[in-house]
Write the structure tokens for this entry.
Amino acid sequence: MAKRTKQDTEAIKDLVRSRAGHRCQCEHDDCAHHTGRCGVQLRALWGVHKKDPDGSFNAINLVAMCGRCHRNARKRDGVD
């Protein structure tokens, strides 16, 4: 399998962000700042998060998250 380049990664992230309408897609109930879907407009600090942690880094397996939800998700998954 070919190594993913920075350009590939950015293109995938751009696709996920566009698909999300430039809004956070987080629906986790442990994010105290929202109920249901977050929906915050994505600004400079945002990230993509895998729906299936063991899945691949592709647009199908990724959701766009605001910085706050992304930090919460990484803590929940034991990444930070």
